[in-house]
Write a structure and sequence with these properties.
661 residues
């Protein structure tokens, strides 16, 4: 017995009369061809409402999820994203992700560092992407394939194929919106780069598809093509994955162009324009003076060939996550594969070959399924090919490819429903398909909601990662950083020690442990850890400057001064190195030099409260009371619990001359 929701939706389907899309973007909202039924009433509006409502419910529990991992380096500690109108600073941060960082700056200006606004933006982008997938699936389902109109079959009436085709776009939109593999790209704030790039990418595909397949007038097609080109340009300034867009557009043209439509030179010129737009990414990269090697390789720690071999297995893991989304993980402990004859590589190549062969066989009878399957691999081409990236696998990379998977899966569900006998019960295939889509969306949505609880705060997230990647050092380091921020120093030291046990040359763990030990006054032990870091990585600026400070505190000021100066030569914009050097100058009574370096540290990183406090003390030592008081007032306003600043401010205000009346 079908549920009330299924019966209600089925009642709406009985009333619809899908038809060919007409001109303009509004035509995308129509449903696929059908025969014989009444006018469209509410079904066209119900589709997007269901997609948006389902997505909103899936992510309703993320609004208070904290900043995580790279969020701190890219957002909370990044002063380039404090002002959305400081376009130069945002551009210098990352030209090929300019729009991503601009939206972060807009969030920061509107809501500071309160997480709710950032999450609302990410969720809104995700819901828009779900609508774009639904609209694109609707447009492609309405396209004629095979050179003519759909052959009429008895089941293609209101009780058969037409109803099934009407459910297909809804299934695609719900799969994309509700699937738990999307959580990393939505709930992890800095990964809005992925979802925002997907928005412009899908918008470009949709506008292009409507211009190619709709019945729009010539001026309307020109507007749609211009909109597609504009969205493509925006995508290139959002994230580098957008460079595959021209290939996706070419595939769409090859798969769905009506046979009677001539391949005019204007269409090929338009596709050439998209390929030219894709050159924005390498052009911007090279004009900044960045090396070519950095463009085609994020890291030199993984050889290109090994990365490619590993990606064959990674692609199969991605497909497993899409079909069976269990054991999701922010930081996989994934081994690299060095030989092409590894059984894991051979098995993976066989699986991928079967999938691509299936796409080829489905090209004529089920073009949307075939297009979705090929699109999946195209969308992953940048991050799962020969461009080595530090992390060989990451779930957020599935966000855009999920659009192809969703359309292919929806087409597969629809084709399966057509096999259900309907002689006695004509509405049975439609009801079974609708029930399956509702049930699948409910299961995936529940899994998404549960997965989002792991992202509640950094401790819950990293403990989940440690449970799933127990042999990896980085999760222990990140948990240690989280615990140190909360003042749980002993627990943080335990995590750092565990990371060093797993990986003796983990520079970050050694650095962080040394810093905590120095804060506890255990300077000799801290200095030994910093020295170990420098043995592993002699140019590590953090270890150079902090070892210099530790040596100065141990009475070896000249040695400390030498190390801090070396650190600044290595990286003139390292704020902590300037702060540490200023501290050493203060010890030596060189207050003018100290003030200069504390000021330089603040110019680089205005939120470095240690540098502001040290600057105020140096200014007070020089009897520059007004300037010292100004910095202390700024510091106490930002950190009201920082007692040393409050006491020093009271002391300075007592020494300042009283204004004459």
């Amino acid at each position: 017995m079908p549920s009330a929701a299924v019966r209600a939706a089925d009642g709406v389907i009985r009333e619809m009369n899908p038809h060919r899309a007409g001109p303009g973007l509004t035509a995308i909202m129509t449903t696929p061809p059908d025969t014989g039924a009444g006018p469209i009433r509410t079904w066209g509006c119900l589709h997007p409402v269901l997609v948006v409502l389902a997505g909103a419910l899936c992510y309703a529990n993320t609004l208070q999820a904290s900043f995580h991992f790279d969020d701190h380096r890219r957002i909370t500690e990044n002063h380039a994203v404090r002002n959305p109108w400081d376009l130069r600073a945002i551009w210098q941060q990352s030209p090929t992700r300019f729009l991503t960082y601009w939206t972060l700056a807009l969030n920061c200006r509107c809501a500071g560092l309160r997480v709710r606004g950032y999450h609302l933006f990410n969720i809104a982008v995700h819901l828009l992407n779900g609508l774009l997938v639904w609209m694109l699936a609707t447009r492609l389902a309405a396209a004629r394939t095979g050179g003519g109109p759909r052959p009429h079959r008895p089941r293609d009436g209101p009780a058969g194929g037409g109803g099934l085709d009407a459910i297909l776009p809804l299934a695609a939109g719900l799969l994309f919106t509700c699937h738990p593999v999307q959580t990393q790209a939505v709930t992890y704030i800095i990964q809005r780069a992925t979802s925002l790039a997907a928005f412009f990418y899908l918008l470009a595909l949709l506008c292009y598809a409507q211009a190619l397949l709709g019945r729009a007038s010539h001026p309307a097609r020109r507007i749609l093509n211009a909109a597609s080109l504009g969205a493509a340009i925006a995508a290139m300034f959002t994230k580098e994955i957008a460079v595959t867009l021209p290939v996706a557009l070419l595939l769409l043209d090859l798969f769905f162009r009506p046979p009677e439509s001539p391949r005019k030179i204007a269409r090929w010129l338009l596709l050439a324009a998209f390929f030219a737009v894709a050159l924005i990414v390498p052009a911007v990269w090279l004009t900044r003076g960045s090396p070519v090697d950095a463009l085609v390789s994020e890291t030199d720690a993984i050889p290109r060939g090994i990365y490619l071999l590993t990606q064959f297995r990674v692609l199969v893991t991605y497909l497993r996550l899409l079909v069976l989304p269990v054991s999701q993980n922010l930081d996989y402990d994934y081994p690299c594969i060095a030989t092409p004859f590894d059984p894991r590589v051979l098995a993976s190549v066989a699986v991928l070959g079967l999938i691509l062969t299936g796409a080829w066989r489905l090209f004529r009878p089920h073009r949307m399924a075939a297009f979705g399957m090929v699109f999946f691999f195209v969308a992953l081409a940048v991050e799962s090919s020969v461009v080595p990236i530090r992390d060989v696998i990451a779930e957020h990379r599935l966000y855009l490819p999920m659009a192809g998977f969703a359309m292919a899966a929806a087409a597969g569900l629809t084709a399966t429903a057509r096999l259900i006998p309907a002689q006695r019960h004509p509405a049975l295939p439609r009801r079974v398909l609708l029930a399956a889509v509702v049930l699948l969306a409910a299961v995936l949505g529940t899994a998404t909601h549960r997965r989002n609880t792991v992202w509640r705060d950094e401790e819950t997230l990293w403990r989940d990662v440690i449970r799933k990647s127990p042999g990896k050092a980085r999760p222990h380091v990140c948990l240690g950083v989280t615990l140190a921020r909360r003042g749980a120093v002993d627990a943080a030291l335990h995590e750092y020690r565990r990371a060093i046990e797993l990986r003796a040359d983990d520079v970050e763990a050694l650095n962080n442990m040394a810093t905590l030990l120095a804060q506890q006054g255990r300077l000799e032990t801290a200095a030994a850890h910093y020295a170990r870091v420098l043995e592993l990585k002699p140019d590590n600026v953090h270890a150079l400057s902090n070892l210099g400070l530790a040596l100065a505190q141990l009475g070896r000021a000249n040695d400390g001064l030498t190390l801090c100066l070396r650190a600044i030569r290595q990286d003139p914009r390292h704020a902590n190195a300037h702060n540490n050097l200023g501290f050493i100058y203060t010890q030596q009574g060189r207050h003018a030099d100290a003030v200069r370096h504390f000021s330089h540290a603040l110019a680089i990183q205005p939120a470095l409260f240690e540098a502001r406090y040290n600057l105020a003390k140096s200014l007070a030592d020089r009897r520059e009371w007004a300037q010292a008081a100004m910095h202390l007032r700024h510091l106490t306003a930002a950190h009201p619990d920082f007692e040393p600043a409050r006491r020093l401010l009271e002391e300075i205000e007592g020494k300042m001359p009283t204004p004459s009346r």
